[in-house]
Amino acid sequence: MATTTGTPGATAKNPAGALTDIPGLRVGHATRTGDGYLTGTTVVLAPPGGVITAVDVRGGGPGTKETDALDPRNLVQRIEAIVLTGGSAYGLDAATGVMAWLEEQGRGVPVDPSDPARVVPVVPAAAVFDLGRGGDFTARPDAETGRAAVLEAARSEAGAPVAEGSVGAGTGALVGRIRGGVGTASTVLPSGITVAALVVANAAGSGVDPRTGVLYGRYFEDPGDVLGAPALPAHPSPEAHAAATRRLADLAAANGPAPLNTTLAVVATDADLNRAQAQKLAGTSHDGMARAVRPVHLLNDGDTVFAQATGERPLAEGNPLALNEILAAGADLVTRAIVRAILAAGSARTPGGTFPSYGDLYGDI
């Protein structure tokens, strides 16, 4: 069920290039394929005691759990884990397995001063729609899947690479008619603050420019930041683009209705943000989705961004605009992580359909 393989999203400024570049954060995947399954769960595990967490939901059809607890006006201050999962609303059951594990560790909101073991873990979760893509509409993540993902996160080393592509919550993901998946990226800002993102790209909209075949997000790459990136993105040949377009049209007729939502993201920083600042980061990071997927934030999308701050590095004193560089980086990294998710995904053929990867359609460009 669980998987640990993948390719880290390296950048010139940060050789690991993953959400785990934020000290204390760990990522675990549980992947379920075969026997009607094409789905999974991804868990972002905070250090004991949790971290400041916020959320911004902009899709019109979200499948979420415990997001109200993240409102800065409400009680819960710190979160121990976030669950990203396949299975639409059914898959939110994966959070139950994560809650059970956290309770066993004594991690959660204390509710009885006389007994520290009495805690209630608040585990925010969000789901993508991948129902039936493995062939069985009822094959979904459950509490066991969530437990497997959090156990993998807990076993991982600090700063470990994060598996990308068709793993975890991205196993059954599609972006338009091509495979989506999990992607991650990070950067170190001039201030020394680190910002990172992890996405599950599973959008009703397309990630591909229909005029050229170039991934939308590649138009926003900084050649000084991404290892090996050219000044402008490479374009497929007109012949390759025409062939890919024909193949996608043929598969659309065979696969049936257009794919449904959602893109999810966790954007994190080691900066010392309060809950309101973290919520602002979650909101502006949605701009990164809009650069990489068109259209976005529709009624049948559930686009959701979580933001986390571990508080290791203070913002510059006396500068009311010090947050701006973090806000801009969050959006940039979501775009980059979506590109990485699409490029890392593999093709799949199941009883539920044939889902080509961008690499299989366009080759290595």
Structural account:
The structure is a single chain. This protein has 6 helices and 17 strands. The longest helix is centred in the last third of the chain and has 21 residues, at 324-344. By secondary structure, the protein is an alpha+beta fold. A 6-stranded mixed beta sheet has the order 1-2-3-6-9-5, with helices on one face. Strands 4-15-14-13-12 form a 5-stranded mixed beta sheet.
* Envelope shape: globular
Mind telling me the C-alpha Rg?
19 Å
Q: Determine the structural class based on helices, strands and strand pairing.
A: alpha+beta
Biggest sheet: strands side by side, in what order?
1-2-3-6-9-5
Termini separation: 32 Å
Count every helix, treating DSSP H or I runs of 4 or more residues as helices: 6
Low-confidence stretches: 1-15, 226-230
Q: What about the largest sheet?
A: 6 strands, mixed
**Number of extended strands:** 17
Proportion in helices: 10-25%
Note the run of SSEs as H and E: EEEEEEHEEEHEEEEHEHEHEEH
Mean pLDDT reading: 90
Provide the β-strand percentage band: 15-25%
Compile the SSE list and pairings:
Layout: E1 2-3, E2 26-34, E3 37-45, E4 52-57, E5 64-65, E6 81-85, H1 94-104, E7 109-110, E8 119-120, E9 125-127, H2 143-155, E10 174-175, E11 178-179, E12 181-188, E13 194-201, H3 238-255, E14 264-271, H4 275-292, E15 304-313, H5 324-344, E16 348-350, E17 353-355, H6 358-362
Parallel strand pairs: 6-9, 14-15
Antiparallel strand pairs: 1-2, 2-3, 3-6, 4-15, 5-9, 7-8, 10-11, 12-13, 13-14, 16-17
Helix pairs in contact: 1-2, 4-5
